[in-house]
Amino acid sequence: MHGSDRDESSLVIRAYRRCLRLLPFEFRADVGRDMEQAFADEDEDVRARRSTRLTLAFWLRTLRDFARTAPRQHWDILRQDLRIGTRMIARNPGFALTAILTLALGIGGSTGIFSIVYAVVLRPLSFPESERVVSIGWRRQAENRNLSLFPMSPSQYRTLQQRTTAFEELGASHQDSLTSAKGRLHVMLPATEHGQPLIGPMMASASLFRIFGAQVVLGRLPTELDERADAPDVAVLSYSSWTTHYGRDPGVIGQTLTRHFGQGRSKVVTIVGVLASGAMRQGDGPYEVPAWGTLDPEMLVGRDDSGKELQGLSVFGRVRTGVSIETARHEIAAFTAPFLPGVYDWLALTNPTVDVLRLRDQMVGRVRVPLLAFLGAVCCLLLVASVNVASLVLARAMTRRQEFAARLALGARPLRIARQLVTESALLAMAGGALGLGLAWVCQWGFVAISPAMPRLADSGIGAPALLFALCAALIAATAAGVIPALQASRRSVLDGVRRVGGSGATSTSFSRPLATLAAAEVALVLVLLAGTGLLVNSFGRLVLFDLGFDTKSVIVSRIERNVTTAAATGTAASTARVSVARLSERSREMLAIDDEILQRVSAVPGVVAAALAGDNPAGIPYRYGASVQIPGAPRGADAALRVWSPGALETVGMKVVSGRWFTPHDRGGTPYVVVVSESMVQQFWNGRSPVGERLAFGRREAEVVGVVKDIRDRGARQDVRPTLYVSTLQFPPEPVLLVIRTSPGVEGIERAVSGELSRMGNRITAAAPQRLEDIWWRQLADARFLTLVLSVFTVLTVAVALVGVHGVLRFMVTQRTRELGIRKALGATPRQLLTLVIRQAFRFAVPGGAVGLLGAILVGPGMQSLLFGITPSDPATLVAATGLLILAIGAGAYLPARRASAVDPALSLRAE
Amino acid sequence: MARVTPDADPHSYLPLSPAVFHVLVSLGDGDRHGYAIIKDVAERTSGAEHMGAGTLYAILRRLLDDGLIDEVDGPAEDTRRRYYRLTRLGRRVARAEVERLERTTSLARATGLFGRSRTS
């Protein structure tokens, strides 16, 4: 009995001893024994009383005692460290300022960019469970990079609805033609936005509202009952349409909109609800679709030239809970084969598959890689900054060895000194972090201000995720900058410091190794960044200098709508017979007459060198993407882009004829159809043999090839050229038409003169404001321009920060070796020899660092592939240039310390010891 | 380690926290070791002030630092425990605190706080 009591007691004491570890070491070393004794005494007393209540109270008291004492004692030490730390920092403001600013740059830059990456790439979409919502459509193999899916036909959509199991629900949308008596139901976008300049009304299946989690503030959402053939057509308004057009009148329910089918036919659609603010936004961007009608089969049916069902439905689905996107993709892909016979001919030629794409990926796919590149670059900056501060702190720790040695001699433990160093670094990191948050805000704001249009960018900001990131960044910085020097200091200073205090003048180089390692790491990171940025700058140069095949300088374009009175001919009985002579309708002849007048008027404007008309923008998408072309003798058709240009366009745009001829004013209505083809089309369709004089068929038309022209890079330099077929505006009047004007270089205000001249034609035409083709081309380069600019800025910053680091490390080394340098000089070394000595020391860490950096650059390169143009990620010239730049930079960083070394006064340096 | 001269102004240490005050008072009766102080204070305050060892030794360290107490040898048969004794300064500080408390108490008594409730 007594024995077991003692066992228990010793067990309890052991537990107590373990608890003592919660206390700071110094406290424990000082009074730990006494506390244990006092505890044992009390334990014995309590045991003697044999009362459960008392024992329990004793234990509770002991626990409470620890809970109270441990934090308080730690806090006391922290306060003491902070006091010493701030005193140290205040005593050496230059060091502190360098460290804080460096860290602020790293933390600020990375946090700012992270906030953007989070808002655009990582953040979920604005409706519930958006991760499960996918877009479904045709993915063209040729356009792998482009994350767009081609729409589906109504029958394909119906089949998917009936036969798939991976989805809770499928929904579809299509453009609508709704108008309101209260005004235009269109949201105009700022001119700089990508894609369509306005957002019009849409129609959607009732299920789509559920897929996107839409809510109403008034009335109800459309349901499946509204989709029945006998049900009246209904629509819901967006919150902003309700506000701007109806003044938030609750009486809007029951009012009507009009749906237009063309040729003057229309239908009445009843408003049944108003969507909540922000619901069903275009691409989850800042703009609401003004109104949503229910799917109207009449708007969706139709057939193209070759009799294929029109594919206009954007299909969406909500994947069932527990079903992976991969499973859904697998199920959907199985529909490729059965659907393929029904798709457009030109689409079928691109080897398309039915595919699913997570909605968020589809929206941000284009900007994901560049943004991640930014994040990578700023993280490099953060790392370099941390390494930099680490080397600064380490260098200073070495100069403080005597102080540490004295404290050690007085009984402080090495870990206690490490703790002091970590506290100081944390202090620097926190100050840097606070300043960095300010910088992050500036960085984020600046990014949004100069960035080209980017989805979801508008509502980015420094929120909780960015703050968390900043905190982590600061912690990483503090750890990197504090722990390494602390470990070194706590290990080495015992021996070195004491020896020094003992009067020995032995200089220790043991510190130089960690310092050199840090400096090498810095060099490696900088080289990776320099190489990456070099690749981007290089490919940007190639993009700018690239010959697009047409001349964008001094060309202006203006979109013109001809207000013709004759109605379009209603679909005559579809005849399948081929036509080889251009027969123009009354309406077309009226349009051509207006065209003639436009050209005449514009050509007379002073400064206009040439004017032409086109159905499409030379620097933009073609008139039609896929005209299916048949060549007699060829087994099957192929697809080509179709462009509609007037006879004068060749000269105006600055294109070259390779063989044959371009259109003349004689190729007009009533004469046989003629076409001109591009060089790549010749390659692809005729194996390079000149087709001039041969015939081909596109759609129901048959034409003679009269000429071959050089390819143009209509999609910019990045994309491949595509085979293009040119037809004349005189035989194929496009609606609307684009006026293309070449002006004499350097003439100002010509846009206004042209606008003025066109306005004299009164209401027969509606002309948009003229745009410079060069501007359009420059805007196409916006993404590349922005990417290159931002990365260059970060790289310059990083190199600057790294230079400060390299300089600091070398300076420290020189200080350490002052005595040695003095002796060398006394023994006859020339300043030049001392200079090379230091520079050689710089390259002793720069060479391994550079080697690692080169390896890193080669490893990182492939990730940048999609951002590059015209060069491979391991482009040797770029790597050599980056390395050269780095050597120059290190040389510059080493120069000042080296000068200092060469100027050492032997007498002075020896006396100092 | 005592950094304070014995003739420092005792008032500069005031007011004392109740725990510190009790420790000083307990040592005023004679030299004691750690657990003896805990027990004494607990008895004196009928268990209201029952300190844990951590709290006590944090106080003792500070009092040692401030020179209010000293470490002394205990009885020859007890070598395992450290004993503490009030220094002259410690004694003066404790007395000053008692006087301060008395003054405070009499000030409070002079108000109607007690008198009025008793008469009414």
How do the strands and helices of this protein lay out in sequence?
The complex is a heterodimer of chains A (913) and B (120).
Chain A: H1 2-20, H2 25-49, H3 52-91, H4 93-122, E1 133-139, H5 154-163, E2 167-175, E3 178-179, E4 187-188, E5 198-199, E6 202-204, H6 206-211, E7 216-219, E8 234-237, H7 239-246, E9 256-262, E10 265-275, E11 291-294, H8 297-300, E12 314-319, H9 325-333, H10 336-339, H11 345-348, E13 353-358, H12 359-399, H13 401-409, H14 414-450, H15 464-501, H16 512-545, E14 555-562, H17 586-603, E15 608-614, E16 624-630, E17 638-645, H18 649-653, E18 657-660, E19 674-678, H19 679-686, E20 695-698, E21 701-709, E22 724-728, E23 737-743, H20 750-759, E24 765-767, E25 771-772, H21 773-780, H22 782-816, H23 818-826, H24 831-860, H25 876-902, H26 906-911
Parallel strand pairs in A: 6-11, 8-10, 17-22, 19-21
Antiparallel strand pairs in A: 1-12, 1-13, 2-6, 2-12, 3-9, 4-5, 7-10, 8-11, 9-10, 14-23, 14-24, 14-25, 15-23, 16-17, 16-20, 18-21, 19-22, 20-21
Helix pairs in contact in A: 1-2, 2-3, 3-14, 4-12, 4-14, 4-15, 12-15, 12-16, 12-22, 13-15, 14-15, 16-22, 16-24, 16-25, 22-25, 24-25
Chain B: H1 18-28, E1 32-33, H2 34-44, H3 53-66, E2 69-72, E3 83-86, H4 88-110, H5 112-119
Antiparallel strand pairs in B: 1-3, 2-3
Helix pairs in contact in B: 1-2, 1-4
Task: Describe the protein's architecture and organization.
- The complex is a heterodimer of chains A (913) and B (120).
- Chain A is of the alpha+beta class.
- Chain A is built from 26 helices and 25 strands.
- Chain B has a three-stranded antiparallel beta sheet.
- The mean pLDDT of chain B is 86.
- The chains are: A alpha+beta (913), B mainly alpha (120).
- Chain A binds chain B through residues 23, 27, 30-31, 34-39, 41-42, 45, 61-62, 64-66, 68-70, 72-73, and chain B through 33-35, 38-39, 50-58, 60-61, 80-82.
